[in-house]
Design a protein that fits this description.
The chain has about 400 residues and is an alpha+beta fold. It folds into three domains: about 50-200, no CATH class; about 210-275; about 285-400, no CATH class. About 50% of the residues lie in helices and about 20% in strands.
């Protein structure tokens, strides 16, 4: 990985590449403040620099718009990772980290068990990849392998955006040994992964090593946690360790990946974390989102009463499916519990995401209003006229 630094001197800017002064004829640099944003070498067709996640995302988005074909590498600590694009489409990602290996990723995702991971890993050779072993042992078909590889790529890409600064290198024309064009829009795909990272970064700031963790019983009622799966092993560790610091030490994952798995479980309403730092007040730009969520919370008791009076179950599955709809956008990060409430952790994380990407607020506002309207319409088709009347009156008084 080529590292570039631009130093300001009385004579002007002095460009260094890998610690040595660069020849002006080989390199061109663009400075922002005291550091390099971009330095390019026309001979090697490479561009290198350092950027924070937001600038890096803008850079990736621009490359996608320009139908870029080549690689974008990232380097931090001992990690070296690479994204590949073909005509603007994101097609593959590689990493030198053990946690990013295909088997490790799909084990954490609950796609294979620990036994399947270990049995397949011992059969891997230089000639035979982990995915090929899964196919030959009838663990996966080709479609399932394709889906697993997309999960692996997502894990690698989102790790770029949880860094405070990214040293990067762009090489035009570089190709990967395999291409999986998982989406027609590489820009949108990377932006979605950056959105997850924005929520995670906020979580890292409020979750200290001294926080206490406990499993929520309601989660165990709605999720089948099978022995031999990562989720079972991770929840067992939580029960044994009870503190974030102890969990990180006990986990065989890196600290950041252990925290990611804790964050995902917290987002899904699986754990209670005691001692989180109080988050600051939401900005004025998010007040419209908060008003919709508050309005839904006010309507919910009327809705619940109607279903209960007629001895009908709450349409929890339908509500969850509405938020997972492909058009739901960032609202899909919201979680609904067994009382059909939108959970506080997922609401906090949505606010963190929208704070980082305010341009998404309007779409989320529209989706949430459609969700509330969908919930009302579903009840109108099911409940008695008396309860429907109460529900309509409540809706009109809150959403004037």
């Amino acid at each position: 990985m080529t590292l570039v630094k631009l130093n300001k001197s009385p004579e002007g800017f002095n460009l260094q590449v890998d610690g040595e002064e660069a020849r002006a004829s080989d390199w061109q640099a663009l400075a922002l403040g005291k550091s390099v944003v971009i330095a390019s070498n026309s001979k090697s067709r490479s561009t290198v620099g350092r950027a924070d996640p937001k600038i890096f995302l803008a850079l990736i988005s621009k490359l996608s718009e320009m139908n870029f074909s080549g690689s974008v590498s990232g380097h931090w600590e001992d990690a070296s990772k690479k994204m590949f694009f073909s005509k603007g489409k994101f097609v593959f990602a590689t990493s030198n980290q053990i946690d990013d290996r295909l088997g490790e990723v799909i084990y954490r995702e609950g796609i294979i068990t620990l036994d399947q991971l270990l049995d397949s890993a011992v059969l891997v050779t230089k000639e035979k990849k982990f995915g090929q072993v899964l196919i030959q042992n009838n663990v996966f078909n080709h479609t399932q392998l394709w889906n697993a590889l997309t999960r692996q790529m997502a894990c690698i890409v989102r790790s770029f955006f949880i860094q405070s600064m990214i040293s990067y290198e762009i090489v035009e024309g570089a190709t990967s040994f395999i291409e999986l064009p998982i989406t027609a829009d590489g820009q949108e795909y990377v932006q979605d992964l950056a959105a997850f990272s924005a929520m995670f970064n906020e979580f890292q700031m409020v979750c200290s090593d001294q926080c206490d963790i406990s499993i929520l019983p309601d989660y165990l009622k709605r999720v089948d946690v099978k022995p031999g799966t990562f989720l079972h092993d991770f929840m067992t560790m939580i029960n044994n360790e009870k503190k974030v610091e102890a969990l990180k030490k006990a986990s065989r994952l890196s600290e950041v990946n252990t925290t990611i798995e804790l964050f995902k479980l917290y987002q899904q309403g699986g754990v209670h974390i005691q001692g989180l730092t109080q988050r600051g007040p939401i900005g004025p730009g998010l007040s419209s989102i908060k008003n919709i969520l508050d309005g839904y919370a006010m309507i919910l008791p009327v809705l619940t009463q109607g279903y209960s009076a007629q001895s009908l179950p709450l349409p929890i599955k339908n509500a969850r499916n509405a938020l997972l709809n492909i058009d739901a956008g960032d609202a899909r990060f919201l979680e609904i519990n067994e009382k059909m409430e939108i959970t506080a952790p997922s609401t906090e994380n949505l606010f963190a995401l929208l704070h980082a990407f305010p341009e998404r607020i309007i779409r989320v506002e529209r989706v949430l209003m459609n969700f509330v309207y969908f919930t009302i319409l579903s009840a109108i088709d099911t409940l008695s006229s008396e309860h429907v009347g109460q529900l309509k009156a409540s809706y009109k008084s809150i959403f004037k």
